[in-house]
Amino acid sequence: MCRTLSAFPTTCLERAKEFKTRLGIFLHKSELGSDTGSVGKFEWGSKHSKERNFSEDVLGWRESFDLLLSSKNGVAAFHAFLKTEFSEENLEFWLACEEFKKIRSATKLASRAHRIFEEFIRSEAPKEVNIDHETRELTRTNLQAATATCFDVAQGKTRTLMEKDSYPRFLKSPAYQDLAAQATTASASASSCSLAEPLCT
User: Fold this and answer.
1) Measuring CA to CA, how many Å separate 191 from each of 56, 129, 169, 179?
2) Phi first, then psi: what are they for 43, rounded to 5°?
3) What is the pLDDT of residue 197?
4) What gap in Å lies between CA 160 and CA 157, rounded to an integer?
């Protein structure tokens, strides 16, 4: 039979709760709109192993921008940070493009392409991304025969801008530095708590 959480040392449980609380505060404003899906939601488990995996995830975000973007929690944290800088439109556009590429219906593809263009690309769009005139016009031309790749150039330029500009600031932000320090502590203490993990017979 599996042992319950009461079998964990008190210090491990307290650390897990504190880490979860800090993360919740950091991501207080991380909910994304319906166009970008539910990437703003964090997934927490009650077991110590979940905390350990999450700690490794947090520390991995500083290794590369690709690791950050491939992590659901990383995207949510990065989005929360971008909102503090009023520049979340770049990430939201990138995410919208990723979802757009999954569409298989030609009718839906064309319809969604026009919505993305109106929301992010056209001049004076509600969430206009910072791209040059040529890229804007190329994207407009691509919409005449929308394919899954019609936003590739604009998406690539937006991604490069985030990687060179916003991403380094995110890593230097006090919120991420604090989160990474907590993750390092949790990771270091994982070995001391591992003996207390539930054992199943």
Assistant:
1) 13, 45, 32, 19
2) -110, 120
3) 52
4) 5
